[in-house]
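tl;dr need the bound structure. longer version: we got a ligand (zinc ion) that a collaborator sent over and nobodys looked at where it sits. i said id run it. heres the input, straight from their email, havent touched it
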Amino acid sequence: MTSKTSRYFGSMTQASLLIIGSGTSSGVPIPGCDCPVCTSQEPRNVRMRTSAVLRLPSGNQVLIDATTDLRHQALRAGIRRVHAVLFTHAHADHILGIDDLRAYNFLQRTAIPCYGFASTLDSIRRTFWYVFHPDETYQGSSAPRLQFNTLHPYEPLSIEGVPILPLELLHGRTVVAGFRIGDLVYATDCNAIPQRSWEAMRGARTLILDALRYNPHPTHFTIPQAEQLSAELGIPQTYLIHLSHDVDYQTVSKNLRSGVELAYDGLELPIRL
Ligand SMILES: [Zn+2]
Ligand SMILES: [Zn+2]
Ligand SMILES: [Zn+2]
């Protein structure tokens, strides 16, 4: 926790967001890669796939995405319960940890409520066919128990009385769910913000935003694009996520504009609801 973020703690703080993964789809380091970032000793260059945990005032926890690294992330962050999962979209790096949700089914003895846009839930149903269409070919192992709920853009859902507004983000041609939660916006995997989402972001104090690297990419914001967006939105503090192995924490951090920082695994940000 940096001094910049701790100023919001105190009686106003009712919830927080813990970044449990800040890396792109490959994770960082990449197996077999000898580049300076993948071989560095800087712990903030070690990035699991992008994901976060919303900690509610009750202490209950909502997972954002279930990444390929979920089991390891859960052990590292000490995630002992998962009360719900918000899915941003169905790309492999955001859903392939779904089977590891079984640990929480066993502990909690109940199905886990999961939320996503209809297109995302349909894609998950296809990928995890054995969860939804069990047959004899999958005998001998258990499947996760999930209770699916369809999110509609700009219609808030409420979890334990905490309003969460789903926003549409564009990730190439894929529509991704962003979330406005109190004074925080979570916007992974995107390279364009529709006007209505732009308006819904106004007044936020913290933006968690996709910024893959410096070089252009067809479906992710670059770091300069994210810096520009952050300035145009006027949000005081932006943290960049979904970072590739082109991004050395220390070198890039020195060159970011004021109010923009790189996120890292383990960063926890307060939310004012
Ligand atoms: Zn991704
Ligand atoms: Zn590398
Ligand atoms: Zn994606």
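gonna send this back to them w/ a short note. The domain at 3-152+163-271 is CATH 3.60.15.10 (Metallo-beta-lactamase; Chain A).
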